[in-house]
């Protein structure tokens, strides 16, 4: 029982009897004094402090393709192969990232496993994951995997309330599946699910001791994964079981007879302790810390694999052949190939993690990056540091931001004499002349830089152009075939275009011309731009414009290059397509100007799951 100690000003832990045999109970022990549920969980202390005792070899294991897929749309098979290959390169020749765990349920999952196996990488070793079910072991065997995780929940919350078993039945069930795996020549890895709410000496240690017997009898290295399923683990000196990470690790090693090299820590971030818990497990003897790339995992996520790599280097004083620069390649792959929006401030992988936005810090960073950069991020991660711009940055600050942000080197660098740089700097000055007090962040600077230095963003433009092409085809599908357009009657066409514009804010201007190049509609714009487009005459001959000529010539959708709108001064792209009558003859051209800034915002919202 946890009881308040007024002298120590902490909750005292009441010790139970430490036994090594299974303790059966009719009712589940839910430890309500520590886990009240209707209130925030408690942390109690027994005031005993464990000495540090790290393992001979600290390893990292991965569950990006298992637990990591429980928090996001499933990866495509080719994406899994690409990520796995990057992980192999990050791991280095010693295989510090020793294993990677895969789902095996769907044919897509199994296809990904087979394709990863074809790469022939020794590390990370591909392993499986199954529930405590003999039938699921057959898939592991069919895929020729040497090891699989087995779900063996250990808390009474799971045993009694989820599985509907008692402790004895749960133990028998788990041991039976472990024996089945051994009989099939598969190395078992038992996942002690929800261990930080479990009765350590009433169930966990007895279970571990039974596994130790099987390990000795079979000669097979049966592993144990300590799963902090709800993120309840704590590292505080003197904290008590079952929440104390040091005491959990030592109990499994010393009382459950499991060598540290056969143990893993798997944590969740419900209480913001996921990384410190994992590294603490290392320090007290746990052989491996388990994580996922970018920390993906159910609910609040798992330990970020990239953070474990950096912590390993910090603790060991060397990288042991790992290549941290691959972390940046992984971040780029998630951003560009998968389309995931990494929060900009995310350590090591976020776009702005090594950028400072405080004016005084930016000044110091420009004088010497070591003052405010956590380490040489360019040398370690291939990520140059960057600064946010203020009125004190000057032309030199703008030039520095551009060259660092765009990774421009040697002759490719811009200097203060570039007209585009001058225009960006003038925009910055105007911001502060208008009364701005805050720094100008990277997102704002990128929008302005794209506008004034579009040639520097060629690859980005190519990607956006593909997106615009897809939008153009969508417009064609949604609008061009509509009967209202075929009439070419303004009274029929204009309401349709107004509704479409309202539903798609990335479009700043829509219009339709006849087959001679003259407008048949008024200017369809957002109300905020209407005055600007009021200057556009409806009797202008547009037949010499590319957006008119190309669809009239080949009957296909046309997408322009990027340009600056003379009406709104925004960076835009034009899409247009042919309108046909009932005889399938082209009678007009429908056009739309798409605003780049709004398109980027829409992409970011989509990548963030629809949240702005």
From TrEMBL:
<dbReference type="GO" id="GO:0008168">
    <property type="term" value="F:methyltransferase activity"/>
</dbReference>
<dbReference type="InterPro" id="IPR000891">
    <property type="entry name" value="PYR_CT"/>
</dbReference>
<keyword id="KW-0489">Methyltransferase</keyword>
<keyword id="KW-0808">Transferase</keyword>
<comment type="similarity">
    <text>Belongs to the alpha-IPM synthase/homocitrate synthase family.</text>
</comment>
<dbReference type="Pfam" id="PF00682">
    <property type="entry name" value="HMGL-like"/>
</dbReference>
<feature type="domain" description="Pyruvate carboxyltransferase">
    <location>
        <begin position="58"/>
        <end position="328"/>
    </location>
</feature>
<dbReference type="InterPro" id="IPR029151">
    <property type="entry name" value="Sensor-like_sf"/>
</dbReference>
<dbReference type="GO" id="GO:0032259">
    <property type="term" value="P:methylation"/>
</dbReference>
<protein>
    <submittedName>
        <fullName>Histone-lysine N-methyltransferase</fullName>
    </submittedName>
</protein>
<dbReference type="InterPro" id="IPR013785">
    <property type="entry name" value="Aldolase_TIM"/>
</dbReference>
<dbReference type="Pfam" id="PF22673">
    <property type="entry name" value="MCP-like_PDC_1"/>
</dbReference>
